[in-house]
Amino acid sequence: MSDARDEREWLERDRREPTRGSVVSPGEEIGEMHFATENFSTALEYFCGALEQPGLVDSDRFRLLLRVSDCHRRRGDYAAAKEYLDRSRSLPSLSGEDLGRIEYREGYLLLWRGEYDAALKTAFGAYRRLKRSQSHGEVAYIQLLIANSYQRLGLAAEAEEFFMDALSSYRRAEDRVGIAYVYNSLGLLHKNACRWTRALASLSKSFDLAKTLGLSQHLIVVQLNLGVVYSKLRRFEDAISAFDAAASGAERFGDQASLTRALLMLGRTHVARGTLGRGEKALLRAQAMADELGYERESALADEYLGELMIARNDLRCAHANLSSALDKGRRLAPQGDIVAESLRRFADVQYRTGAVSDALISIEEGLRIAKSCGELYEIGYFHRTRALALARSQDVDAALEAMATSVASFEECGNPYEKAVSEQLLARLCVRARSEATLLKAKAALADSVVALGKLDEPRALIVSHALLSNVERRLGNVDDALLAVYEADRIAADEECAKYRKALAALRRCIEDQMSNATRRVLDQFSVLGEIQSGARSREQLSKGLETTLRLVVEKLGAASGFISIPSANGRGSQVVARLGMSVKDAQAVESWYAKRENGSRGPVVVTDFDKVPSLADLKSRIAAPGPLLVQDLGFDHETLGMMCVVKAADPARGSIGQEDLHFVAAYSSLISLSVYELVRSERKGRAARPRPAASKGFESIVTDNKEMIHLLNLAERVAHSDATVLLQGETGTGKGLIAYAVHLLSERRDRAFVHVNCAALPEQLLESELFGHVRGAFTNAYFDKDGLLIEANGGTIFLDEIGKTSMAMQGKLLQFLDTGKVRKVGSNDFMAVNVRVVCASKSNLLKMVEEGRFLEDFFYRINDFPLTVPPLRERPEDIPLLVHHYVSKIAREMAKTIDGTTPEFMSKLVDFHWPGNVRELEKVIKRAIILADDGDSLGLQHVAPEVLRGAPEAEPMSKSEETLRERIEQIEHAMILEAMRRHAGNKSQVAVHLGISYPNLLSKIKRYNIQ
């Protein structure tokens, strides 16, 4: 390699080649030396001085004007550069080559202003004028201009072709400065195609040449481009160092254009790194400079990067405004260019986040098309990721999974392991949402891949998320040991990184896994406890039946069967009774019993049928059983007595297999134990040791004590409505037993085996009540760190009891009305609806109809919950129940307190019967409990044990005509009534209503929405 002096002499000779004439003064010669080392500010001073010399000929003036323009352009002062080009064009006797030299410089000005089409056209004009000249360096410079114009227009193939032509031209001219320029441009080309290794190699060559040749100005440009590549590779420290160096150099040399770009990229890198304050400071300064100096491309980029900053801050309104501006400017510069593609990707993200899913999908389609056409491969994975999230919000989970998988593949193709891992995390979340074992296994594989990648990248926070998600997937797959290992690893990393917020969430996840492990163990214990359950129930047919139902479920699960039943002798000793069945009707069970009794070989013992078609006597049975497969019948009893049978039927599915010897042993063991319990019950019933009880109240009303005709009639009505799904409205005073009746309705319904959820609407504020009922999504409000299912979702398949429904706000009534009408729940903060099947029972101590008339309760909601109203009479209206309740509570509470109470005295009972009981049954229970606490062991309850208020016999309080209400509630009632009346008077014309009421139109709309006025 030549030493520095040789390099400088060669460079000076090459830089003089494109000019007309020779150097006219020492000042110009010194200016050329500074220009060669890209010290453009100093060079400009010498060129201007030379231009002021007297006696200059036109050729010398032309050469100096071009050099002054070049200095201004390289310093970023494009207006001054254009001014000197215009002065050079005005000189007389310009040749075609002279015009070509002016034109390609004008082309560079157009390129930096973002006028890519005009720059390309001008460059080709200059190329035609100079391509046959001996100015090889200038021809190469024009080829470089053409290549850069093509690249900005998104025509990557054409750009690469002219870059290579320029490289060849510079090599022929032995112009190492030009070679440095081309390598820099090739680095950008490889960067856009996500060829990171080749990009760094090209830029490093350009950097080394620039450093060797002393090209200070070009070093700034290369540092900028190196910083961009480092940022894409998430080497943020290297990127920030490169951008800082570029910004310092640009300020030192007065290069406003490079300084603007350095600030832009520095701000964007800080945003990606999460240091948003520093990012905003750099971006705002860059935006101000771009707008002031007329840099249209940089101005568009500033809007784009500020939009990205606002997305990071979740300020979606400002993000929308910034990105809209960036799109407008980008489309003016190059409709199919990189700025449009990048801005559309972020714009679609904002649209998705604000719920405009359809608009987001449209933006994604346009952005994908442009990104592919202009070679912006880096953006494609982001487009597919946002598309997947938008499709998931539209409930198209299969399409969302496909789009997210495409995002993962795109990021892998463009060598972006971090974003690939993020997409894998989101893919796992979508797979969990699909809820099938196949998708859970897919989620597990994706998360395992992300864990490996993030571990190599040293991204601890993202790695914590992957481990937590993997733990959740393993838990859902039943791999609790692996789930615990994953959550422990996540917690270890969170402790090392001092991430307190993660540790709290991970602790909750760990508790969930531990509960699952405990429940699994409990289920195993429950299986063994069945034996004790059926043994303890041997003297009660009902209890034994419950135990046998559990036993049958255990056997069916153990054998992988589809259906089955257990029958035992009936209570009257005549025939048999099917006491437990699963997946089989009573008639089908009786058909199996009949076949078993009539078969040719009438011997007792287990019978196995693996093929129904080979047993002619089973032809009728086969038609009765859905998808009949292998069948096993095991009789119950001993040699001297038959006590019924147990039967299980497998589905006709080869994957489930047939009935094996181990299955026979398992069923035989259980049948022997069952036979002992059945024998004990039968013997007990035969000997009459358990007296037949008198007809009892329907199951579900055991806890309700009454002899009042009105109350009995109400219970009969409740029993009838329990078998339907009609909404029940229970009204009555406090303490009358509305909650007991609501639970009885649940127990008597077909939903008895599912959840019964009791919600006291008066005990929760409105916002908390909405979250409790409907659930919420993560981030819906402060401290909403995780998604939460509401009580309506938890009660799915069962019954929800909304107590004190009259205490809910009008807004909450409107939301409950919508749920009752649609059967769908929308969590707080979500746009997605979930269908639930819940039976609703409401209760209120207030007169809801009167509240409707007063405008304090929604009329539509009242009639919606009033499907089947039941009014529970107060205790004072059924005095015959008081002695029954007194004896019931004395017996119950004395037993709980381990006291012996010898009944009650007549005076005690008389006082209680005569009292008006404003607190109804609940108050009576408290009075009895107080009396038993005061009584000694063996006492009879007397007047000395009666509560003072009962002894005084306080006058009965008048029934409250309306509940106490606050000033705010009363104001709301008045507002609601006045708006309703005004709406009727003006036939729904809201503008006239607003004028009539003397309030603003927006205020009226707000109140209409608040009071849910239709």
What attributes characterize this protein structure?
1014 residues; alpha/beta; five-stranded antiparallel β-sheet; 44 helices; 65% helix
Report on this model:
The chain has 1014 residues and is an alpha/beta fold. It is built from 44 helices and 14 strands. Strand 1 and strand 2 form a beta hairpin. Helix 14 (256-273) packs parallel to helix 16 and helix 38 (881-896) packs across helix 40 (920-934). It starts with a helix and ends with a helix.
Summing up helix and strand content along with how strands pair, one would put the structural category as alpha/beta
Helix-residue proportion: 55-70%
Could you tell me the strand content as a percent range?
5-15%
- Uncertain spans: 1-21, 689-698, 954-963
Strand order of the main beta sheet, please? 2-1-5-4-3
| Mass-distribution shape | elongated
The profile of the biggest β sheet is: 5 strands, antiparallel
- What is the number of strand segments? 14
In short:
The chain has 44 helices and 14 strands. The chain has about 1000 residues and is α/β, with parallel strands linked by helices. It is elongated, with a radius of gyration of 43 Å.
Give the arrangement of secondary structure elements.
Layout: H1 4-16, H2 26-36, H3 40-51, H4 58-74, H5 78-89, H6 96-112, H7 116-130, H8 136-152, H9 156-172, H10 176-192, H11 196-213, H12 216-232, H13 236-253, H14 256-273, H15 276-293, H16 296-312, H17 316-333, H18 338-353, H19 357-374, H20 380-393, H21 397-413, H22 417-434, H23 437-457, H24 460-476, H25 480-497, H26 500-536, H27 541-559, E1 563-569, E2 576-582, H28 586-598, E3 607-609, H29 619-624, E4 628-638, E5 641-651, H30 661-687, H31 709-722, E6 728-731, H32 738-748, E7 756-760, H33 766-774, E8 775-776, E9 788-789, H34 791-794, E10 799-803, H35 810-822, E11 824-826, E12 833-835, E13 839-844, H36 848-853, H37 859-865, E14 868-871, H38 881-896, H39 906-914, H40 920-934, H41 948-952, H42 967-985, H43 990-997, H44 1001-1010
Parallel strand pairs: 6-13, 6-14, 7-10, 10-13
Antiparallel strand pairs: 1-2, 1-5, 3-4, 4-5, 8-9, 11-12
